[in-house]
Amino acid sequence: MLYDVIIIGSGPAGISASLYTKRAGLETLIVSKGIGTLNKVEKIENYYGTPNISGKAIQEIGENQAKNLNIEIKNEEVMQIDYGKNFIVKTLNYEYEAKTIIIATGSNRKVANIKGIKEFEGKGVSYCTTCDGFFYKDKDVAVLGNKEYAIHEAQNLLPIAKSVTMLTNGEQPVEKRTEGIEIKENKIREFRGTNSIEEIEFEDNTTKKIDGVFVALGTASSSDLARKLGVILDDKNNIKVDNKMETNIKGVYACGDCTGGILQISKAVYEGMVAGMSVIQFIKSTKA
Fold it and tell me: What's the CA dihedral at 8, 13, 17, 22 to 10 degrees?
């Protein structure tokens, strides 16, 4: 099925956008995985019309609004967005096609607190296998992470690299395995090298020679998805948008915490509304 819009993220920004696109008669799909930051907020007292309410309650109210409009919601993790004639949203097991995309995945996660990781960014440490994987043809590479997103990135590297190792940094890896990927659960002490990354030292005093490390912690963040698609980010890794919430790529919009600025529900809801209305105008103009 070809959707008019696929919204990635089911927080206030994503749900807000979906309410506008669905009511305008657009085929709308929300793809979202995991618990957002809002669900962890115990009490909210400064949001209009809802004093003394939990973040989880607001989230549930929004999701119920979407369900009451029969908005389709898929509980899946988005790994990548590709662009050809239309946009292809790839999860671990499925692909969905849309005319437009709204990224509403919240703020970017923090980088792992490992010595050397910041120093070697751009010098062997990368966050995008699609962007930089080619440069490691026939070389030994590693993926830092322990969940499905890390496995997906490791799979991207298998046809290119000489060897691929998954570094879980002391965490338990997911059960899914791919033949050809080595799993190392050792806690990492440091990334070392001279002009670029050359070696990983573990806390058990063992080491491993390496040519490149791809960071894929947790689920794919807004900046991860944006980089792979070619969307421009600012110096804080927030997605750059214009006053219509449109990115540098026609038909790709972003809203909420992933665009930076004041990280508040009211700002996310507003930007979701703007993104939704912009998509409506875009679809109408292409049909005309």
Answer: 70
Tokens 């899946």, residue located = 76
Sequence-separated (6 or more) residues with CB below 8 Å from residue 258:
9, 103, 104, 105, 106, 107, 108, 222, 223, 238, 239
How many C-beta neighbours within 10 Å does residue 203 have? 12
Interval 16-54: pLDDT, tens: 999 999 999 999 999 998 667 777 677 788 888 888 888
pLDDT at 176 over 80: no
List, in sequence order, every beta strand (DSSP E) within the chain: 2-8, 28-32, 72-75, 78-83, 87-91, 95-103, 125-126, 140-144, 163-167, 181-184, 188-193, 197-202, 207-209, 212-215, 252-254
Q: Which residues 6+ apart lie within 8 Å of 117 measured at CB?
A: 111, 125, 191, 213, 215
Please give the model's pTM, rounded to 2 decimal places: 0.83
What's the N-to-C CA distance of the chain in angstroms?
Answer: 21
| DSSP code for 92 | S
Neighbours of 217 (CB within 10 A): 21
DSSP letter for 110, please. Answer: P
Chain CA centroid to CA 65, Å: 24
